[in-house]
Amino acid sequence: MTEKVLLVDDEEEFVETLAERMRSRGMEVATSNSGGDALDLVESEPYDVVVLDLQMPGMDGIEVLERIKKRKPDIQVVLLTGHATVEKGVEAMKHGALEFLEKPIDLSKLSEVIQKAKAETMVLVEQDTEERIREILHGKSW
Question: What percent of the chain has pLDDT over 90?
């Protein structure tokens, strides 16, 4: 099954180049150049993972991460940055990021992380489904 990825970065050339490379590896990739547009896409489409730039004008990656997790807690988010600090990495993980990777990104490493994210999403969805089935069965008087 193909990984469905939303790639978010304000650098248009970077986004398009990385998206093409990801597509050549068989991934289904949508792109966005702003946090606001990314949030709209997350609301309208299901994604296995969001790959999100940390530093963007307007809404930064941490704020977008928080909003995504509030709206769709099962979506996995990977943060990318060209200016990594331990503090930002810790902050990203506290807000629910699966990974925090540095640019320039190694596509093999990113592919591994995306596969890990998809597996994590599938586990969360399966757990949620099992919980709903239990609730239905307990609600019935058989």
Answer: 64
In a 3-state reduction of DSSP, which class is residue 5? strand
Write down the pTM of the prediction: 0.86
- The CA-to-CA distance between both ends of the chain, in Å, stands at 37
Q: How many CB atoms lie within 10 A of CB 40?
A: 12
On whether the CB atoms of residues 19 and 7 are closer than 8 A, the answer is yes
Tell me which of 2 and 28 has the higher pLDDT: 28
| Half-sphere CA count of 133, side-chain side, radius 13 A | 6
Q: What is the Cα gyration radius of the chain? A: 16
Q: What is the mean pLDDT of the chain?
A: 90
**Residue pair 9/15 in contact by the 8 Å Cβ criterion:** yes
C-alpha to C-alpha distance for 12 and 31, rounded to whole angstroms: 9
pLDDT score, position 142: 57
Query: Which residue is associated with the tokens 């940055």?
Result: 81
